[in-house]
Amino acid sequence: MTVHPDMHGEVAGRLAALEQRYTTTRRAVVETLSRAGRPVTIPEILSSTPLLPQSSAYRTLAVLIEAGVARRVTGDGDHGRFELAEELSGHHHHLVCEVCGTVDDVPPSTRLERALDEAARAAAEDQGYTVTGHRFDLVGRCPTCR
Ligand SMILES: [Zn+2]
Ligand SMILES: [Zn+2]
Fold it and tell me: How far is the CA of 72 from the centre of ligand 1 (A)?
């Protein structure tokens, strides 16, 4: 899932700003994150990225996170889940299974966005904040765990 018209160009630019090259390995991981359509774990990234050594996976993700290309959604170590930054993947929310830990993307809906924006603005303005965005996860049980 990607909404950016020139995803690889954007990623290359962000890496170049850190004097990092957009290597084949980094490109392969970006492709995997883009194809997944939901936040994925390191083992999932390894199984869907041929020829990616486990030792490179952690280092590659660290560089992509530092460049603002990817972000950690939940968890630590092997339980961590990663996705592309919203500037590349588009604004969305997550459905988190409290039993198995699976995380799915929820596509944005005008109705939900409007309700969240209004509620957030009202709540934050009382404390002198200007709201520029939001992160919102729905927690429950996935179809397998229900
Ligand atoms: Zn589940
Ligand atoms: Zn939203």
Answer: 19
pLDDT (tens digit per residue) in 40-78: 999 999 999 988 998 899 999 999 999 999 999 987 766
Question: What is the number of the ligand closest to the CA of 114?
Answer: 2
CATH 3.30.1490.190 boundaries in the chain = 94-140
CA of 103 to the centre of ligand 1 (A): 9
For residue 103, the SS3 value is: strand
Please state the pTM of the whole predicted model.
0.86
Q: How far is the CA of 119 from the centre of ligand 2 (A)?
A: 12
CA 13, 19, 25 angle in degrees (round to 5)?
75
Q: How far is the CA of 4 from the centre of ligand 2 (A)?
A: 17
State the Cα–Cα distance between residues 6 and 79, nearest whole angstrom.
30
Q: Which two tokens stand for residue 32?
A: 């995997």
Q: Does domain 7-90 have CATH number 1.10.3720.10?
A: no
CATH number of 94-140: 3.30.1490.190
Where do the CATH 1.10.10.10 domains begin and end in the chain?
A: 7-90
